[in-house]
C-alpha cells in the first residue's frame, strides 16, 4: 500500500511507523541524489509559503529549512526570537490560527514540546518540530540517513549515546532506535538516564521492531562493540552558567576519546548533532576553558577530526531529510 503523509504534523518520531520513517529516508536519499546531479525540484511545491519560528537560534536548522524550502520552489519567512509576538502579546493558539491562514507549513524551534503541539492543534496546516526541550525529530532523520549511508543498514545497528540522556537528543535517539529495530545504549551516570515513562513507551516500540534498550554507567561496557558512538554538548542554550560545574563533574568520565572509539566495532563511526566544544575556537569554549582549565569537553578534538567522524555528512543530511519531510507532509510528489 502506498504511503501518504500529506497533511501530517511532524512533532516526534513516536507518531510515525517504521515504514513511514523509511519512506522519508528513501525520499531524502532520492532528493539528495537529484541535488548532487543538478536536477532541480523547484516545481515540486512552487507557489507554497512556509514560516520558520525560531525562539532558539540555530545555524543548521535554519539553513536546512531555508535551502530545502527554496529547492522545492517555496517562499520562506524567518521569524527570529524578536520577530513574533508568540506567547507574549499573542497566544500560541491565536498565532497558529493566523499563520495557518497565511502559510502552507509552520516550523517551530524553541522550548517546551507543549508549544509545538498547541501550534499543531490550532493550525490547519502541517507543523514541524525544529527542536524542543523534549524532542529533536528532524535531527533523527539526518542521523538515520547518515548511518544507513555509512554502514549500509539500520536494523541491528548498535548506537551508544554518551552524556546527558534526559533531554531532546537522548529522548529522540532512544525513540528512533526503538522504532527502527536498532540497539540503543545510554551511557551516563544513572541520574542522567531518560525518564522512566518514556523508557517504558519505547520498550513497547522495541517489542514490535526487535530493538533493545540498555542503560549503562560503565563506559567500557556501554561502548563495547558499538557501531555508532554519539554525543552532544553538555549544557544547552538557555541554561544558566552554574550548570556547567555540575555537568562537567558528572560527565567528564563520559567524554568521547580515542580509547572510547577503539572500544567500538571495527567500522565504528562518531556522530554529533553540533555545535561541538572540541576545541577553544568558540566564545563559549574559551569561557569554559578559562574557568575549568579544559581545552575540550564532550569529545576530544582528536576524535572530532578523525577518520571515525561523520559529523559533517550528518550536518549536510539535515537539509536533505528536512526537504523530504516537508515534501512528504505537503504532498509534493503525490499524484
**Annotation, overall tally of beta strands:** 9
Radius of gyration using CA atoms only: 20 Å
Low-confidence stretches: none
Which percent range fits the helix content? 40-55%
User: Looking across the biggest beta sheet, what order are the strands in?
Assistant: 7-6-5-8-9
User: How confident is the prediction overall: mean pLDDT?
Assistant: 96
The number of helical segments is: 13
- The coarse silhouette is globular
Largest sheet composition:
5 strands, parallel
Percent of residues in beta strands?
Answer: 5-15%
Q: Which structural class best describes the helix and strand composition?
A: alpha/beta
3D architecture notes:
With 335 residues, the protein is α/β, with parallel strands linked by helices. The chain has 13 helices and nine strands. The protein has helices at residues 18-36, 59-71, 92-102, 113-122, 137-151, 168-180, 196-209, 219-223, 243-251, 258-262, 283-292, 301-304, 311-329, and strands at 49-54, 75-79, 105-109, 127-131, 158-162, 183-187, 212-216, 228-231, 269-272. A five-stranded parallel beta sheet has the order 7-6-5-8-9. Strands 2-1-3-4 form a four-stranded parallel beta sheet, with helices on both faces. Strand 6, helix 7 (196-209) and strand 7 form a beta-alpha-beta unit. Helix 2 (59-71) crosses helix 13, helix 5 packs across helix 13 and helix 6 runs parallel beside helix 7. The radius of gyration is 20 Å and the shape is globular.
Amino acid at each position: 500500500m502506498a504511503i501518504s503523509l500529506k497533511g501530517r504534523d511532524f512533532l516526534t518520531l513516536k507518531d510515525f511507523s517504521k515504514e513511514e520513517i523509511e519512506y522519508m529516508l528513501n525520499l531524502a536519499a532520492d532528493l539528495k541524489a537529484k541535488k548532487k546531479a543538478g536536477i532541480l525540484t523547484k516545481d515540486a511545491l512552487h507557489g507554497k509559503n512556509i514560516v520558520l519560528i525560531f525562539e532558539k537560534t540555530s545555524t543548521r536548522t535554519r539553513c536546512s529549512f531555508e535551502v530545502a524550502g527554496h529547492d522545492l520552489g517555496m517562499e520562506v519567512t524567518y521569524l527570529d526570537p524578536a520577530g513574533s509576538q508568540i506567547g507574549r502579546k499573542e497566544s500560541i493558539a491565536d498565532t497558529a490560527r493566523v499563520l495557518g491562514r497565511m502559510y502552507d507549513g509552520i516550523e517551530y524551534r524553541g522550548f517546551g514540546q507543549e508549544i509545538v503541539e498547541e501550534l499543531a492543534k490550532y493550525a490547519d496546516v502541517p507543523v514541524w518540530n525544529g527542536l524542543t526541550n523534549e524532542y529533536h525529530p528532524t535531527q533523527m532523520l539526518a542521523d538515520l540517513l547518515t548511518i544507513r549511508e555509512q554502514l549500509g543498514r539500520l536494523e541491528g545497528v548498535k548506537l551508544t549515546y554518551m552524556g546527558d540522556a534526559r533531554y531532546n537528543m537522548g529522548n529522540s535517539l532512544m525513540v528512533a532506535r526503538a522504532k527502527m529495530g536498532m540497539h540503543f545504549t545510554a551511557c551516563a551516570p544513572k541520574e542522567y538516564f531518560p525518564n522512566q515513562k518514556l523508557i517504558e513507551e519505547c520498550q513497547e516500540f522495541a517489542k514490535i521492531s526487535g530493538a533493545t534498550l540498555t542503560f549503562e554507567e560503565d563506559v567500557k561496557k556501554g561502548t563495547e562493540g558499538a557501531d555508532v558512538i554519539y554525543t552532544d554538548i553538555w549544557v544547552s542554550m538557555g541554561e544558566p552558567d552554574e550548570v556547567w560545574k555540575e555537568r562537567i563533574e558528572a560527565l567528564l568520565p563520559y567524554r568521547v576519546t580515542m580509547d572510547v572509539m577503539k572500544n567500538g566495532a571495527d567500522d565504528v563511526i562518531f556522530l554529533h548533532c553540533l555545535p561541538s566544544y572540541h576545541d577553544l575556537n568558540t566564545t563559549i569554549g574559551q569561557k569554559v576553558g578559562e574557568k575549568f582549565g579544559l581545552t575540550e569537553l564532550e569529545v576530544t578534538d582528536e576524535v572530532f577530526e578523525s577518520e571515525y567522524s561523520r559529523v559533517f555528512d550528518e550536518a549536510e543530511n539535515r537539509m536533505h531529510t528536512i526537504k523530504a519531510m516537508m515534501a512528504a507532509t505537503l504532498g509534493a510528489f503525490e499524484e
